Amino acid sequence: MQIYDIDDGLRNALWDFIFLSFIHIGEFKVWRRLGILWFKRLKERPFDEAPSGSYWDIKNEIREVFFSAEWFEIYDYLEVILNDWNKLTEFAPGELVSLDKKVLELNRILESKLSAYRFVGKGFIAITDTRELEEIGSAITTAEEKRFSGVAKHLQKAAGFLGPAEKSDFENSVKESISAVESLVLSLTGEKRGKFEKPIRDLTTRLNIHRALGEGLIKLYGYASEEEGARHCILDGSTLVGYEEAHFMLVTCAATVNYIFGKKNKADSSAGFY
Fold first, then answer.
1. How far apart are CA 237 and CA 213, in angstroms?
2. Three-point CA angle 88, 92, 93, nearest 5°
3. Model pTM above 0.70
């Protein structure tokens, strides 16, 4: 498993992913945009230092820096390309496949080359289990579709903190994960931020959720937010919050978000939510 490095096989495959995605487009604006994404947005270099010339010249310059880049810069570049996909599509209408198809293609490459990362939401995450990735992706997508933007943003941040090692921050990942659940519960109950017990108990009654599950969520919230839990570990400088805890919290909180949405849909369909 490639965690802190990218071998030649993976680097070559990721370059082919980029090259073959755009080589059929002899459109200067597209390749100019790809150059700007690397030199300006990723490396924060002046605009006039971005590659120029023909699209082939720009491709060669991007290729040169790509093959000399640090392993985590490769993931960063792929991330900004995928997050810029809609803009790239505007420059070449009808020439690029959908973002969903590109993400699926990329994740298959990462799996075949034993990368420790997969792309979900808006960034890379150190989770490779397909079912877990689907759970997280579904929670983010559903939250966005239902216009619970705060829930989606918390989950995206939590996933981002589980990204390539240069970006990993397990304590903040835990806090963002539980904040997604908190945001959803408060939004559905109309409560303001404060004690979590009352709104979650309120919601369990409204949605006909077993009381034990509600109490479990309260305890999970206590672990992530109160001084005897993850927050205490951060304050006293200990390292009790590691990858395993952050991974567990993200998958569990994403599953909780999906569960609550599912229960609300059921209640709405029977006019049982008030």
1. 31
2. 110
3. yes
